[in-house]
């Protein structure tokens, strides 16, 4: 089956009087090989219900529906949301597609349970959207997100690297993430002025309950808000004072002279547990 090409995408955009909005990150994939590569990397199967965020004109949507059992597309642009079903029907008349015209961050539940997440995410919402769906949709077992290269590097970063920070640690609460490829600027219309990469994630068992997650995430925020400071200073506001921070770090068996970038998720969880125990 032929996927959407550059000419058809431009025709649909002209029909809708659509001028891609930079504010919405509207850079549409016009290369079928790239779409099929993403589907392959996401390891979509015939039993999967895919949730796609930001389907746009539908290039990747059709490639996903070639393989998946069904797909729910979340699209914030009303014109694109309204057009997508007919575009898909032209290529795959019997596909199971649901389109929801909503801001992706406003959605906390679906009638069906998605198993795979695939998204082409703009820079300004990429990390919040990924964390939101990992948190609120535990049925999502894996997926691939296409994001700006710098964001991808942060999501997949390991401790003691320049890129390691809040996105790296928080995402690892729910999943293991790794870089799985780069995407050429030339496969987009319009051509963006940034490079993109693909990040694959696989859900894992979370390391604790919601109370621990909240405390751990607060510690992560504190540690990286002033990442050049030692932990006993960086966590002073979170703990109440530098002395209390040092006491909590001691209880967690963490060197208070370290910086946040040296700590793993397990270390931050130990800090969160020590804080919860201290507060009774």
What this model shows, in words?
By secondary structure, the chain is of the alpha/beta class. It has 2 domains: 6-203, 3-Layer(aba) Sandwich (Rossmann fold), CATH 3.40.50.150; 210-278, Orthogonal Bundle (Helicase, Ruva Protein, domain 3), CATH 1.10.8. It has 12 helices and 9 strands. The strands form 2 sheets. The chain has a 7-stranded mixed beta sheet, with helices on both faces. Helix 2 (32-41) crosses helix 3 (59-65), helix 5 packs parallel to helix 7 (166-174) and helix 8 crosses helix 12 (265-278). It starts with 5 loop residues before the first helix and ends with a helix. The relative contact order is 0.11. GO terms for molecular function: RNA binding; rRNA (adenine-N6,N6-)-dimethyltransferase activity. InterPro entries: KsgA/Erm, rRNA_Ade_diMease-like_C, rRNA_Ade_Mease_Trfase_CS, rRNA_Ade_methylase_Trfase_N, rRNA_adenine_dimethylase, SAM-dependent_MTases_sf. Keywords: Cytoplasm, Methyltransferase, RNA-binding, rRNA processing, S-adenosyl-L-methionine, Transferase. Residues 34-205 form the Ribosomal RNA adenine methylase transferase N-terminal domain.
């Amino acid at each position: 089956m032929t996927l959407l090409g550059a000419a058809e995408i431009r025709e649909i955009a002209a029909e809708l009087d659509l001028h891609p909005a930079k504010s919405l990150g509207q850079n549409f994939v016009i290369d079928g090989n790239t779409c099929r590569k993403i589907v392959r990397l996401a390891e979509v199967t015939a039993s999967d219900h895919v949730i796609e965020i930001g389907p746009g004109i539908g290039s990747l949507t059709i490639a996903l529906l070639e393989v998946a059992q069904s797909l729910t597309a979340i699209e914030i642009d009303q014109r694109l949301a309204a057009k997508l079903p007919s575009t898909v029907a032209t290529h795959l008349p019997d596909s199971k597609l649901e389109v929801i015209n909503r801001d992706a961050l406003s959605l906390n539940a679906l009638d069906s349970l998605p198993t795979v997440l695939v998204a082409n995410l703009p820079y300004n919402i990429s990390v919040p959207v990924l964390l939101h769906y990992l948190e609120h949709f535990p049925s999502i077992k894996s997926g691939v997100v296409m994001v700006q290269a710098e964001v991808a590097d942060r999501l997949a970063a390991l401790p003691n690297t320049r890129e390691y920070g809040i996105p790296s640690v928080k995402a690892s609460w729910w999943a293991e993430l790794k870089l799985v490829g780069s995407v050429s600027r030339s496969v987009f219309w319009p051509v963006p002025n940034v490079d993109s990469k693909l990040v694959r994630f696989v859900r894992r068992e979370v390391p604790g309950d919601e109370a621990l997650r909240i405390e751990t995430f607060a510690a992560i925020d504190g540690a990286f808000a002033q990442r050049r400071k030692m932990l006993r200073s960086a966590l002073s506001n979170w703990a109440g004072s530098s002395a209390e921070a040092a006491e909590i770090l001691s209880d967690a068996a963490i060197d208070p002279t370290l910086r946040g970038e040296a700590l793993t998720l397990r270390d931050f969880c130990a800090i969160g547990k020590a804080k919860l125990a201290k507060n009774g």
